[in-house]
Structure formats: structure tokens, C-alpha cells
Write a structure and sequence with these properties.
With about 450 residues, the protein is of the alpha+beta class. It has 14 helices and 12 strands. The protein is elongated and about 130 Å long.
């Protein structure tokens, strides 16, 4: 055995380094000169030699080593098998060709399926029965933001304590370990720190010969489609309710308002004209709510005209400037790039922006004297869209409030109807655009309105 090792090690190391025909010929020579040695002993020496060489290589180089070493071992074993008939090369070469073809076929299938796994849009990780990570694809490494080669061979503790792993990712992995591994759940859905919706699927060892397969897929787009469909259902329901009751309430209110105006002079003689004023004010407020109901139920297409978006924003600033000053808030208007034009129903889109400005002012006023209020209005272009950003430094909102912000009847205000933003959502959608919302408690809120633009 010791004699085999002395010859085998340098010969294999030379072939791995050079891959030349001369170094491969050494395998043939060693195979022909082996007498009284069992093939299992040769394979054992081969494995020991591989471990020594692989210990001094990077993981990617080690993979190449195993492929090359198989060629070397095949050459040696075929020569060993036919050492008694050195003159008959036909059968010797036939056996070599069969083994090489078998290896190439196996490698082709292996590489084909590994290539499929590497380029899937889901993150794939395979752990062996000992809990060691034996395979991780490109998407999983991308999700974790850690190089693939530094993850292979790690157990769950090694992954969690990885020096390049972000704190937020570490918390996510610990949460997954608790929910999936300990409770043996097969499916789990969660949201990461960046707001992405992730679907995690686990296939346990009893189905994979002891291995564990973990798949993570970013389903944020599907969630957005689902939420849009859900939002459309709610808006349709709102439309039916609004259309059914709004007109029935409006008619008696009109009659009441007329009679109160007729009674005005008599109440003035009694010194009770304040009652008439209060009643008329409340009737007007009720009519405003009814108008919001009616607006939310109208499926009418917008009457579009082509206008510069910056002129519309400047008009909104003029309309809200006085209220902002009264609340100690400053308005800042910014515009980037070439002047943008949009085809919109000016009245409807102005209603949307005014509604969001009012919400921003309310959010700032709730902070009191904690800090000076500021609202930024920014106009820019992004992927053939005119983007209107309305950003405030008000109280902000939590994630639960954000997910319900466009729901009909949902409001955080004591005197709110919960219709303003749902109507705004419908208006922008009817214009072929969409709205994005971002907020953080104590920091402020940002609405981004996307409208198709003209270059």
C-alpha cells in the first residue's frame, strides 16, 4: 500500500496540474505494474490522495479535481484489468472508451440538472442528513447576499454566524428555523425587512434520501396582483352601496336645507340665528360626504387633456399655501429633467393631489410643536411615467395601516369618511397609472403617483 501511495500521489497531482497525455500515461504504467493488489485498495489510495490534494484547493477548483481524477483512475484501472494481455490493445481501448462515455453521459446529465437549479427564479438550498449545506444556487446566495462558495459545508449555526450575513437576514433565518424546522411546516410565508413577500417551501428528508430541500421564492408581484384584485372587489362593493343610498339621503337633506333658510328670519327675531347657521353647516357637511360617496361610485372615464404636470402642481401649491402657513408648514417644489406632459382629467387628478396634501398637513399638525412641518412635492420621469412625489415629515404610519390605507371606509381620523384615498386610487387607476406608498412611524409618509407621460 505504501508503495502504491508513493507512486500514485505525484502521478495524480501532475495530471491534475497539467492534464497532459504524458502525465496520463503514468496512470497506464502504474496500472500495468500492479500485481497482487485488490482494486478496492487502489480506490482507497485514490480517495486518500484526493483528500490531500483537495484540502489545498478552492471549492471551485476541487470540483474540477474530482472530474479529472476520475479520468486518471479509469485509465489506471483499465490498464490494471488488461495487464495480462499487454499486446491486445483493441479490448483495452474499447473498455476505456466505454468508461469515458459513461462518465461524460453522467456528467452531462448532472450538469444539465444543476444548471437548471442554478438559474431558477427560486432560491434553492439542500442540506444533507447531518444538517450540512451541500448545495446552494445563485438565487439563494443572492437573497442572502453572501458568496455561494463561503456557504457550502456550513450547518445552520455556521450560516447564522456567517460574518458577511446581514443582521436582518440573520433574524429571518432564525425565524424560519423556528417556524419550519422545529414545527415541521412545509409551507411558510413571510415579509422581509425590505418589504418583499417570500414563500418558503421545505421538502423533508424522508422524501429525499435523508436530504432537506429549502426553496424560497419572491412572490411580491403575485401579492400585488392579489391585493389589486381585492382592492377592485372592495371598490365595486363601495360603488354599489354608494349608488344605492346616496341619492335617497340627498333629496330629504335638500328639503330640510330649504325650510331652514325660510325659517332664518324668524329665528333671527328670536335671537336663535346661530341654530340656523349650525344646521346649515351640518347639512353642507353631510352633502360633502354624499358627494364623496357618489364620486367613488362613478365609473365614468376621465375627460383627458394634455397638460404640463408642473403647472398642475404649482396650482395645487397656490391652493394649499395659506393652510400650510397657518399650520406652520413649509412647501418645497422640485422638478427634474425635461418638462413633462400628461394626458389627464385635470379636475380629477387635482382632487387626488389636494386630498394627499390635506392628509400630509393633518399628519404634520398631529405632531404639534415637536418639529417644523415640511412637505416636498417632486416631479420626475421614470420609465415613461411622470412621477409626482408628495413627502411629509409627519407622524407616519405602521405597516398594518399602510396595507389598509386605500380600503374604502378605513380612516385614522376621528371625523374622516375613509373614502378620500380609495377614490384617489380609483381615479389614478382609471388614468392607467398607479400609486405607491411608503411610510415610517415618527418619520413621515411618501406617496408616489405614477401617470403615463409624453416624452
Amino acid at each position: 500500500m505504501q508503495t502504491i501511495r508513493k507512486r500514485y500521489f505525484p502521478a495524480l497531482a501532475e495530471f491534475v496540474r497539467s492534464g497532459s497525455e504524458v502525465s496520463l500515461f503514468q496512470a497506464t504504467e502504474i496500472g500495468r505494474q500492479l500485481h497482487g493488489v485488490h482494486p478496492e485498495e487502489i480506490i482507497k489510495v485514490h480517495e486518500e490522495t484526493l483528500r490531500v490534494i483537495a484540502a489545498n484547493m478552492e471549492s471551485e477548483e476541487a470540483l474540477r479535481l474530482y472530474n479529472q481524477s476520475f479520468i486518471f483512475l479509469t485509465e489506471l484501472l483499465v490498464a490494471y484489468r488488461f495487464r495480462a494481455q499487454p499486446g491486445d490493445s483493441r479490448e483495452f481501448n474499447m473498455m476505456k472508451e466505454l468508461l469515458y462515455n459513461s462518465n461524460r453521459s453522467t456528467e452531462h446529465v448532472k450538469n444539465k440538472y444543476e444548471n437548471v437549479l442554478q438559474h431558477m427564479d427560486s432560491g434553492i438550498a439542500i442540506f444533507d442528513s447531518e444538517g450540512m449545506l451541500s448545495f446552494v444556487n445563485l438565487q439563494m446566495a443572492k437573497l442572502m447576499e453572501v458568496p455561494r462558495k463561503t456557504l457550502l459545508g456550513c450547518d445552520i449555526m455556521g450560516i447564522v454566524t456567517h460574518p458577511q450575513l446581514k443582521h436582518s437576514t440573520r433574524r429571518m433565518i432564525i425565524q424560519l428555523f423556528k417556524e419550519i424546522v422545529r414545527r415541521r411546516l412545509r409551507y411558510y410565508e413571510m415579509q422581509d425587512s425590505g418589504g418583499r413577500h417570500l414563500l418558503i417551501t421545505v421538502t423533508y428528508g424522508d422524501q429525499l434520501d435523508g436530504d432537506y430541500l429549502v426553496s424560497i421564492k419572491d412572490v411580491s408581484e403575485y401579492k400585488l396582483i392579489e391585493q389589486t384584485a381585492y382592492q377592485n372587489d372592495k371598490l365595486a362593493m363601495l360603488g354599489k352601496i354608494s349608488a344605492a343610498i346616496a341619492h335617497e339621503i340627498r333629496n330629504p337633506l335638500t328639503s330640510i336645507r330649504g325650510f331652514i333658510q325660510l325659517l332664518g328670519p324668524h329665528l333671527m327675531q328670536l335671537g336663535k340665528e346661530e341654530y340656523a347657521r349650525i344646521i346649515l353647516t351640518e347639512i353642507d357637511r353631510a352633502n360633502e360626504i354624499i358627494n364623496e360617496f357618489l364620486n367613488s361610485s362613478k365609473p365614468t372615464a376621465p375627460m383627458k387633456q394634455r397638460v404640463p404636470i408642473i403647472s398642475l402642481i404649482k396650482e395645487v401649491v397656490l391652493l394649499t399655501e395659506s393652510e400650510a402657513l397657518m399650520k406652520g408648514c413649509t412647501l418645497h417644489l422640485e422638478s427634474y429633467g425635461e418638462p413633462l406632459e400628461v394626458s389627464i382629467d385635470v379636475k380629477q387628478v387635482k382632487q387626488v393631489i389636494l386630498n394627499m396634501m390635506k392628509n400630509a398637513l393633518d399628519a404634520i399638525s398631529e405632531l404639534g410643536e415637536q418639529r417644523k412641518g415640511r412637505i416636498d412635492l417632486i416631479v420626475r420621469e421614470e420609465k415613461q411615467h411622470a412621477v409626482i412625489t408628495i413627502r411629509d415629515n409627519g407622524k407616519g404610519m405602521d405597516r398594518n395601516t399602510m396595507t389598509r390605507m386605500f380600503d374604502p371606509f378605513f380612516t385614522t381620523k376621528a371625523d374622516g369618511t375613509g373614502l378620500g384615498l380609495s377614490v384617489s386610487y380609483r381615479i389614478i387607476r382609471n388614468h392607467g397609472g398607479y400609486i405607491k406608498l411608503d411610510s415610517e412611524m415618527g418619520q413621515g409618509t411618501e406617496f408616489n403617483i405614477y401617470l403615463p407621460s409624453f416624452a
